[in-house]
Amino acid sequence: MKVRFVTSNEHKFQEVKRMLSRVAEVIWVNIEYPEVQAASLEEVATFSARWLEDKVERPFFLEDSGLFIEALNGFPGPFSSYVFRTIGNEGILKLMQGVSHRRATFKSVIALMDRELHLFVGSSPGEIAEEIRGGGWGFDPIFIPDGSNGLTFGELGERKDEFSHRGRSVRELLNYLVRRNS
Ligand code: IMP
Question: Which fold would CATH assign to domain 2-180?
Answer without folding.
Answer: Maf protein (3.90.950)
